[in-house]
Amino acid sequence: MASQNGAILALDSVSVSFGGLVAVSDFDFTLGKGELVGLIGPNGAGKTTVFNIITGQYEPVRGKVFFRGRDITGWRPDRVTCAGIARTFQNMRLFEGLTVLDNVLVSRHSKLRSSMLAAALNLPGYVREEQVARTKAMELLDRVGLMDLAYTEAGSLPYGQQRRVEIARALAADPEVLLLDEPAAGMNPEETARLMEFICGVRDEFGLTILLIEHDMKLVMGICERIRVIDYGMSIAEGTPEEIQGNPKVISAYLGEEACEYA
Amino acid sequence: MPDKFRKTILTVIFIGFLFVVAWLADNYLDEYVMRVVRTGLIYVIAAVGYNLINGIAGQFSLGPNGFMALGGYMVALLMLPVEQKEFVWFLQPLIWPFRVFSLTKPFFPLAVALGGVAGALGALVVGVPSLRLRGDYLAIATFGFSQIIIVLANNLIPVTNGALGIKGIPEYANVYRCLAWAIVTVIITSNLANSSYGRAMKSVRDDEVAAEAMGIPIFRHKLLAFVVSGFFAGVAGGLMASLITTVSPSLFSFSMTFNLLIIIVLGGLGSTTGSAITAFAFTLLSEALRFVESPITIGPIDIPGIAGMRMLVFSLLLVLLMIFYRRGLFGKKELSWDWVVSRFGNSNRQGVGTWPHKTEQS
Q: Do the Cβ atoms of A98 and B360 come within 8 Å?
């Protein structure tokens, strides 16, 4: 196991079960600052469950989650996000009734210092804060190339653009660790290529640490420095993309699935 | 910035215009019509407040009649003259602080605001346990709590005088005061709905899981919306007590909540201006429709007067609206100066219609 020194995020033998079903068991994992790591595995392997444990959606039955050395096990999701871990969702959960800009601004709300009364009365202090938040959100939308669509209802955008809104929304929370759950799902090869460039770009620009779940092997092998493979809720391998590609355990885990798909 | 300034000027002019209209109406229309207008303005306050929790925060509450009752009784207890209090509570004396004092006319706005505070406190007490529930369960819990408030009003005789109610409240809720409260309610609620807090509430409405993952404490924001909503319900109840000059448990029955629910659904859940306009129109219409309850003769057919025919007409309207305008008359949209100008303004002022793009990038 990698040493926990210098790790920004660490999972210490974490287990989660639903009823009798063990979704993730004894999962150890560390993420060093500035790393870009892929989490892969067949469908239903427990990848998203790992995300849900980190962000506080699920509380592990055993084990602990550390963020910058602090035990954040059992924290409510909003606290985890404010501490510096933001995520996107596999099945995109945009606020569909809100505009693209408002979607991004929601993530800035936890940074707001003004009281609700100041906001309801439009006091100068609040107006200034709102202006700063809007500027910041517009910058992020510019970064993901959606500035022109800022005032469009998010639910009416095509799939690929909604994915980009999700990433902008997560970035607006000023995270140190960004968890991307299948960012390339539903994208064509050209969009995926641009997404890869984008992910590497924002990592350098914002000094992010990124953990991503992805089925698109070209993307995972192309940008991740390290890959963790999980199957039936258990870690089966970890290593560089080259090591993973040649690992017999990984091949067998995936072959079963592919055999089913071709049948 | 100049555009924002222009909008403020427009709003101020519009408010002045409303007061001029109110003055004209007060001087030239008869007492009956003015009563309807005042009731309409009070319904505006109640509906706009109710829309905040149901439409903007998306939490299905069925409690506003309870919070209106709290506000109504608060204003009654504060404003009723001391001699009248002795007269009303002839079976059991009124409890202490209220027995010995009453507020004079200049303090009426304070009494209404305290009625709002009573509603807000009620909402806080009800909200803490029940806002952990969602959807239908929340509706049932809030319905239960508002029924408890009404049952208490029926039985806490030293405070509420029970089912007999409280009579002789001074009628200070004139059209100007009702209008002023309605304007304050609409401005504060729409500011709030458009603020960062309003966005957080709407995000909770659209997707709780995502809202929480974006750093929004969801329970806290539901409770904030619920308490503000309770405040305006209390204000509306207080004004209504002073308009009708009596309060009794039956005044704040569940049918009040039902009317408000019709209003906010008709107006478009989530639209503050939609709720305000629909509330006023609904009140006027329900009075105008009184003729359907009187005996009518159409040619050879004699229709006897049937009480409750109005509700039949409303139900039909509601059914038709739900078929043809499923999201209500306004949907989630607001009637704003941007919209008015872009719709009716001439071409050389087109910039105002696209205002958000211009200033907010700076």
A: no
Mean pLDDT of B271-275: 93
In chain A, CATH 3.40.50.300 covers 75-187+203-210
CB B272 within 8 A of CB B334: yes
The residue with tokens 């629910």 is: B261
Q: Where are the alpha helices (DSSP H) in chain A?
A: 47-54, 77-83, 100-106, 116-120, 124-143, 159-171, 189-206, 217-223, 241-245, 248-262
Chain A within 8 Å of B205 (Cβ-Cβ)?
yes
CB contact under 8 A, A116 and B209: no
- Tell me which residues of chain A have a pLDDT lower than 70: 1-5, 255-263
Contact A112 B196 (CB under 8 A): yes
Q: How big is chain A by its Cα radius of gyration, in Å?
A: 19
Closest to B178 (Cα-Cα) out of B39, B275, B14: B39
Q: Is B197 on the interface with A (CB under 8 A)?
A: yes
- Residue B341 domain flag: yes
Q: Report the CATH architecture of A75-187+203-210.
A: 3-Layer(aba) Sandwich (3.40)
**What is residue A256's predicted lDDT score, i.e. its pLDDT?**
63
- Nearest-angstrom CA–CA distance, B77 and B98: 6
- The model's pLDDT over B279-313, given as tens digits with 9 standing for 90+, comes to 999 999 888 888 877 887 888 888 777 777 888 88
Domain-embedded: residue B362: no
B132 touches chain A (CB under 8 A): no
Please give the model's pTM, rounded to 2 decimal places.
Answer: 0.90
Q: How crowded is the C-beta side of B71, counted as CA atoms within 13 Å?
A: 34
B356 pLDDT more than 80 = no
Probe site for chain B from A95, A134, A169 (most B CB atoms < 10 A): A95
Burial of B57 (0-12, 13-18, 19+ CB in 10 A): buried
ipTM of the complex: 0.90
Q: Read off the CATH number of the domain in which B72 is found.
A: 1.10.3470
| Residue B175 in domain | yes
Strand (E) or helix (H) holding B356: helix B355-360
